[in-house]
Amino acid sequence: MTHFKLSPKQKAARVFSYLFMALCVLVALFPIVWVVLSSFKTNREILSNGLQLPSTFSFSGYKQALEMAPILKFFVNSLIVSFASTALNVFILAMAGYVFAKKKFRFKKSHIRDPVPFHGDPIHRAHESENPSRNSSACFAFRSSWYSAFHNKLVQAGMTQSMSRVAHCIDNGPMEGFWGILKRERYYGRRFTGKQELVQMIETYIHYYNTRRVQRNLGVLTPMEKHALASPHKKRPAALGC
């Protein structure tokens, strides 16, 4: 799998970013490591040289801490309070969610939006005007007409309907993978000044992805080369996003 080559400036910026992140990790971990190591030291060792490793690893400090304060009791109390507050929140929020979903009250529509797409179009109005039983032939007929109208809208818009079904993401999975690759190689870390620049980048990358970017799972071939091998007697199509 090939990737775009980075310029020397980009390589230097990446190295600097990695070094900076490593420094941040060290700064964040140093106090934790120091506290853990100091817990095995005696008071004299801590006051004499706090950065030095303990001469002997002793658990006397933990024993003294447990004798001075009931830490285990405090810990158990914290667990009880956490579990009780979580259970109470779940119980209250579950009842509130049921009320919001099932009951009708003033200003409900202004706070809860209907997730059904195409608000205001004929399909959505038909969906709202009909309310057949879910386990009836009327419901089946209604859903069939709804999907037929939805398919017609896609055809009018010049769009191809997804072939995916539940547990069979025939085209959804590959498309999600393609957009993930595009964003990783072309979008992240780059600033676009306008819509046209973004669209041009996507169109250029689609052509590059299909005709120049080899992939291991295709036998170190590009998608167009793999397509030509799979269908040698068919006319070679134009490069499109898959």
Molecular structure report:
The protein is mostly helical and 242 residues long. Helix content is 62%, strand content 0%. It has 10 helices and no strands. The protein has helices at residues 8-38, 43-48, 60-68, 71-102, 108-111, 122-129, 137-156, 172-187, 195-211, 223-230. The model is unreliable at 114-120, 129-138 and 237-242 (pLDDT under 50).
User: Low-confidence runs (pLDDT<50, min 5 residues)?
Assistant: 114-120, 129-138, 237-242
Outline the biggest β-sheet. Answer: none
> What gyration radius follows from the Cα positions, in whole Å?
31 Å
- How do the SSEs run, as a string of H and E? HHHHHHHHHH
What is the first-to-last residue Cα distance?
17 Å
Gist of the model:
62% of the residues lie in helices and 0% in strands.
List keywords for this structure.
242 residues; 10 helices; mainly alpha; flat; single chain; 0% strand
Task: List the topology elements.
Blueprint: H1 8-38, H2 43-48, H3 60-68, H4 71-102, H5 108-111, H6 122-129, H7 137-156, H8 172-187, H9 195-211, H10 223-230
